[in-house]
Amino acid sequence: MTAPTALLAAEEWIAYSGRSNLYKVRLPKDYKIDAKEFLLGNGLMAAVETITGEVAPDLDEGGANDSIKTYKVVFQQTLGQPLDEDLIKKLLDDENLGFLEEYKQYDGYLSKMDNYFDNTGLHINDFEISYKDPDLGIRYIHVRTAISGVTKLQLVSTGSESGIASYRTDDFFKMVTLHDGHLETDKKIHDTWEAHTSPNKLFTAYYPGILEPYTVEEPKTKNSDRSEVMAFEYYDPVLKQKLYYKIYGYKFNVKLNRSAMIKVLQDRHIMRYSPKTRYMSFSNSVVEGNGAEVIETSFAIPLTDTNKTVSYARLKSYAKGNYMIVHELLGSSRLARGVFADNLIKSVEFHPEVAIEHERSDSKSGEEK
Fold first, then answer.
1. How high is the pLDDT of residue 9?
2. What's the whole-model pTM score?
């Protein structure tokens, strides 16, 4: 449902239910919409929607013909678990600071601000910034942001002082309904995302392709005869944080036991991010149905001037025979230990028997040459 942006009379507004059916707003009748859904696993999807529209000002409200009013709705959902109140407050404050920083170049200053809970218990941050437009002179941007559970809904309007204060703009900001929760779906990662088998055929991972804002680039791979790595990046638009996910594959000359697995994790992973760590706690070994032994650990990563965002690492390793893979998740603990991260790990297929067959095939090809 996409309509070209148009200049509209003020009365041409409609009540709009998002494609997710998780929110309702009043909008100009013609608008542009960009909507995406992102599979989380466990029968759930996250949704993002951005809607834009613009209208000519109401002349009876004192608007000037060159003073177009713009409207924008941004609906976003986190990849992780529901947000607690302390984090919601921080995110709302960050939204305020982010807009102020953006409008500094236009001599922007905070003209109004309010932080409150509405009658449904929804936490809302509301503010206006006055700034100098190079062509139109003094303009205003009004931003109202609500965050609840896994969802952020943001309403933005720009215009002249009279336009921002019009009854239609007031309607736009007041006529809002927000329902929390991710979307339910019967889609599964293995059936929906594209399979990516590692160069040495040791594992197969799944990836949805580029689906902004959650994913913005294709996975990267690198390998040698005895090791390989496949790297992915995911972005949480509500937290404004990245989850860095790498899968490492190794081949050794001997069969691996728990002690050998721990040494690999310490020497090749833990020391890279936390070199001063001496004592780590590892989970008890578990043997899965395919015979793979599994151990896991996690640890904090110090923040520095060069590392301001990655504060946590989670490692989960699988070993069978002399083959081993390591799931390495870097980011915040909220993302690295969340259900989405669990589902990423569960979706990966560890198949050393395919790697062995691949090595045999390569060996035969080499002999024939």
1. 44
2. 0.89
